[in-house]
Amino acid sequence: MESLISIALGIGLAAAAGFRVFVPLFALSLASYFQVWPLNEQWQWLASPFALMILAAACIAEALAYLIPWFDNLLDTLAVPLAGVAGTAVMASTMADLNPAVTWALAIIGGGGAAAVIKGVNAGGRAVSTATTGGVANPIFSIWETVSAAFMSFLAIFFPVLAVIAVIILAFIMYKIWRSVQHFRAVGRPETTTL
């Protein structure tokens, strides 16, 4: 049961990494510093005060940088692969009592994959926002992403099973949006869908 909970925690934090790379890392560092969640032996450094300060500064810098229109699009080109790495790292760090081969397979596929897909969809949404509003709406989109990352991180740490359910709902919504965009591109008009 503990292994399943740690996998749920990892998936929730990986999804949060798809919104903001450093927010779930900071949340996990904070949770492990206050001994809310234990980490694998190789990841104990994440609970140190130094790691906590560095990740807090990185969170703030990332959130502020995404408020600058056009610069946020440049950040997305770097953040998509970084989100995959962060998703892999947070999932690997939370895995308890699993074979290393299983841990890394789940971390790369589940954690890295979830984070990269969510970040890719968000990057695409920001590109559309930039094209349609000239970047004026981008700060609102960025604030929504930061809040989503913080909420998903909170949910993953305190209610891991609910975090997995939220990830499934989020995946369904993203799929419906993707289908609508594909339909719009094919016919030139929006598809009416119900979520």
Automatic annotation (TrEMBL):
Keyword terms, alphabetized: Membrane, Transmembrane, Transmembrane helix
Transmembrane segments: 7-34, 46-67, 74-95, 101-118, 150-175
DUF4126 domain ranges (all copies): 7-179
Top-level taxon of origin: Bacteria
Protein name (Swiss-Prot/TrEMBL): DUF4126 domain-containing protein
